[in-house]
């Protein structure tokens, strides 16, 4: 069996920036073990598969795999999939609707900017800072800890986020996914995202983390439109909006890197 594979850099306007995703179009789902094995072989933070929609409310069904697990939401790989459909597979409708484990996700395109309509996950404050958290995060000063799907840790400033050197071995032992964030020097917010338990020590750019970051910062900054940077080594830029209490918009650009063929 031969499969087409695309590799796209998401949330960037330059090659080798942003977050690379492997995009694999299918006509029907492969065995889950094979999809996971291909994701392990690709060794990117995400391999995404999509098939023609199986329900009236979606154009395609979509699934995302890290090298370790299937996840319930991934932003950069959804953005990359929409880029492939709009730019390489001849999709010509105004919007693409993806059916996923997190509901229907819609992506629209204006020029070279893609905008995803995602769930908004407002994190709630934890009364007690979890033990080992400060040690995991390089003994950094923590201003607050919040949680929805992922633990969101508020730090003092951009420098604290940028310079943090987490202990991934200790993190994997005690925590699942951690976002660290702070106000930006020249943008509204900065962040980094860690998920060693899911096979990703640090994710270059994480759209799904902004499902929490947008409600969090929109409320704190009292503004609906936000400009965000993810401060990984590759870096990523996102334009965000708090649409309503339940939905957020996440926009970014993509760059084509590679098209190939897999034989399995």
Give the SSE layout.
Elements: E1 2-10, E2 19-25, H1 32-42, E3 46-52, E4 60-65, E5 70-71, H2 75-87, E6 95-100, E7 103-110, E8 113-119, E9 124-125, H3 133-136, E10 142-147, E11 151-155, H4 158-163, H5 168-174, E12 178-183, E13 189-195, E14 200-203, H6 210-221, E15 225-230, E16 236-242, E17 247-252, E18 254-263
Parallel strand pairs: 2-3, 4-6, 11-12, 13-15
Antiparallel strand pairs: 1-2, 1-18, 3-4, 4-5, 6-7, 7-8, 8-17, 9-10, 10-11, 12-13, 13-14, 15-16, 16-17
CATH architecture of the largest domain: Roll
Rounded to an integer in angstroms, the radius of gyration calculated over CA atoms is: 18 Å
CATH superfamily of the largest domain: Diaminopimelate Epimerase, Chain A, domain 1
CATH topology of the largest domain: Diaminopimelate Epimerase, Chain A, domain 1
Distance between the termini: 5 Å
Q: Which percent range describes the beta-strand content?
A: 35-45%
- Outline type: globular
What's the order of the H and E elements? EEHEEEHEEEEHEEHHEEEHEEEE
Helical stretch tally = 6
Number of domains: 2
The averaged pLDDT comes out at 97
Please estimate the helix content.
Answer: 10-25%
CATH class of the largest domain: Alpha Beta
**Secondary structure tally: strands:** 18
Q: What summary fits the major beta sheet?
A: 18 strands, mixed
Structural class of the secondary structure composition? alpha+beta
Low-confidence stretches: none
């Amino acid at each position: 069996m031969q499969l087409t594979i695309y590799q796209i850099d998401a949330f960037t306007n330059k090659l080798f920036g942003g977050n690379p995703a492997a995009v694999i179009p299918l006509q029907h789902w492969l065995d889950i073990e094979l999809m996971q094995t291909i994701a392990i072989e690709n060794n990117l933070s995400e391999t995404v598969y999509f098939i023609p929609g199986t329900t009236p409310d979606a154009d395609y069904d979509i699934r995302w795999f890290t090298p370790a697990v299937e996840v319930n939401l991934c932003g950069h790989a959804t953005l990359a999939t929409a880029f492939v459909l709009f730019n390489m597979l001849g999709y010509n409708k105004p919007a693409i609707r993806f059916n996923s484990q997190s509901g229907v996700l819609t992506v629209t395109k204006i020029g070279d900017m893609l905008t995803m309509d995602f769930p908004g996950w407002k994190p709630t404050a934890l009364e007690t800072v979890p033990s080992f958290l400060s040690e995991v995060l390089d003994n950094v000063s923590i201003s607050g800890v919040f949680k929805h799907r992922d633990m969101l840790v508020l730090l003092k400033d951009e420098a604290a986020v940028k310079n943090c050197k987490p202990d991934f071995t200790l993190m994997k032992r005690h925590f699942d996914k951690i976002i660290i964030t702070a106000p930006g020097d020249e943008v509204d917010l900065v962040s980094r995202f860690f998920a060693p338990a899911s096979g990703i020590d640090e994710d270059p750019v994480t759209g799904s983390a902004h499902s929490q970051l947008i409600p969090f910062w929109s409320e704190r900054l009292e503004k609906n439109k936000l400009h965000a940077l993810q401060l990984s080594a590759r870096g990523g830029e996102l334009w965000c909006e708090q649409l309503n209490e339940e939905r957020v918009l996440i926009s970014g650009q993509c760059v084509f890197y590679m098209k190939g063929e897999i034989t399995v």
